[in-house]
Specification:
This protein is of the alpha/beta class. The protein has 11 helices and 27 strands. It folds into 3 domains: about 150 residues, OB fold (Dihydrolipoamide Acetyltransferase, E2P) (Beta Barrel); about 140 residues, OB fold (Dihydrolipoamide Acetyltransferase, E2P); about 120 residues, Response regulator (Rossmann fold). The strands form 5 sheets. Strands 3-7-8-6-5-4 form a 6-stranded mixed β-sheet.
């Protein structure tokens, strides 16, 4: 079976890849923020969720171990059936295909190990039982006890965004919604090919057009370096890449975006993250400035849609303005309101003119779910498309939305997906969803 080898002290252990969801590195400077104590247990704050967290050392002890790490924590996010938890290990090694040896009789009832394997140097490495460890440490009980803290996360509401933080120049920090980035590649600078003013690289059997922030925005240029990162994303049916010099972090942040002073080509505004001014990158606008014909050709395909009217319901001014811009630039008419109560009033007054509702979920007075329920309770609106745009991802939130009558559940700043879904629901285009 494929397995990842990890280390605790001088001992090596194997973790079956089938039980490994992801690897997370917690920087020393963020340990206090991301690792919290809950009674006599610990939890890891990961993308808006709280995961029970133990150290591999704790597997052999009932005490919370004060890890003596001078640097970052290496955390395995493990899958025990539908349940997930984090495990801190000292060091990570390579993944390998291993041969599983059965346990000796005196270990046959162990809930810590599922077997053993022989390493290349002849030493024995034990294979961890991810489900068994969860059971003996009663980690699901910790998950239940974390509900109160998770309520604090929920209280942040729909403005919580998962952001990728990057540097172009070391003195300037930028943020990009993770949901917009399909892939990240690390490349050597000699992989970049130039034809006139256009940069590209060979990518998945073809060529990927590359952009830089300084091509459009008044920001500092990247310093010369041997390696760069390429953030791959899609705009107007074109897959392209954004070059940056450094990946800083991924953070779940309550976004309070200011449009004062920092709005420019490719930049939609600024926010403060960890005490540092951070510019929010507008990937769509960046491409629109640098390759305007792509956008014009893409929009021309749907020029007949301009007679359709979309009701936008969003309580946060920044996102409300963003959604209105998305809709209007695509050729639709927009009616914009701040909450569900005002949306219901518009439906009562102008319901025959409205072709689709685009709504936030977390709002004061009447939220998006209650709005959907009330709309669906009216026979004349039974077939009116309702699209939820939110930051509250996850299967449970999507299920609640669909139960309330929401047709589609999308991430807020993903312009391409939002417009693609609108076109699909209005029957104007056959793009696959």
């Amino acid at each position: 079976i494929p397995a990842l080898f990890v280390c605790m002290g001088s001992e090596r252990f194997a973790v079956p890849q089938v039980n490994l969801a992801e690897l997370v590195r917690v920087p020393m400077r963020r340990r206090q923020e991301l690792v919290q104590e809950l009674g006599n247990a610990q939890v890891l704050r990961l993308r808006g969720n709280l995961l029970p967290l133990i150290s591999l050392r704790q597997v052999f002890s009932d005490e919370i171990v004060d890890e003596e790490h001078s640097g970052a924590l290496n955390v395995l996010v493990l899958k025990a059936g539908d349940f997930r938890y984090g495990m801190i290990v000292d060091e990570l090694f390579d993944s390998e295909e291993i041969v599983v040896k059965p346990l000796d009789d005196f270990l046959s009832n162990s809930k810590i190990y599922v077997g053993a394997t022989i390493l290349g140097d002849g030493q024995v490495a034990m294979i961890l039982d991810v489900i068994g460890i969860s059971d003996i440490k009663d980690l699901e009980a910790i998950e239940g006890a974390s509900a109160e803290i998770e309520e604090d996360i929920d209280d942040l509401g729909s403005d919580v965004q998962e952001l990728l933080l990057v540097h172009n120049h070391p003195e300037e920090q930028f943020a990009i919604p993770v949901s917009l980035v399909s892939r990240i590649e690390r490349i050597h600078c000699n992989q970049i090919e130039r034809t006139g003013t256009r940069a590209s690289m060979q990518y998945l059997g073809g060529h990927l057009i590359l952009f830089s922030l300084e091509d459009a925005a008044a920001v500092s240029s990247r310093p010369e370096t041997d390696y760069l990162y390429v953030l791959v994303f899609t705009v107007a049916d074109h897959e392209v890449g954004l070059l940056v010099s450094e990946l800083v972090d991924i953070t779940s942040q309550a976004v309070d975006v200011s449009v004062e002073g920092f709005v420019q080509a490719g930049i939609m505004g600024s926010t403060t993250i960890s005490g540092r001014t951070t510019l929010m990158v507008d990937l769509y606008d960046l491409v629109r400035r640098l390759e305007p014909t792509w956008i014009e050709e893409h929009n021309a395909r749907y020029s007949a849609e301009s007679e359709r009217t979309i009701l936008i319901v969003e309580d946060t001014a920044f996102f409300r303005n963003q959604l209105e811009r998305f809709v209007v630039e695509a050729g639709y008419r927009a009616l914009v309101v701040e909450d569900g109560a005002k949306a219901l009033a518009e439906l009562e007054r102008r319901g025959d003119e409205i072709d689709l509702i685009l709504t936030d979920i977390e709002m004061p007075e009447i939220d998006g779910l209650e709005l959907a329920r009330r709309v669906r309770s009216e026979p004349r609106f039974a077939q009116l498309p309702i699209i939820a745009v939110t930051s509250l991802g996850g299967e449970d939130n999507e299920r609640r939305g669909r139960d309330a009558g929401v047709d589609d559940y999308l991430i807020k700043i993903d312009r391409e997906q939002i417009l693609q879904t609108i076109r699909h629901r209005l029957g104007a285009g056959s793009l696959a969803l």
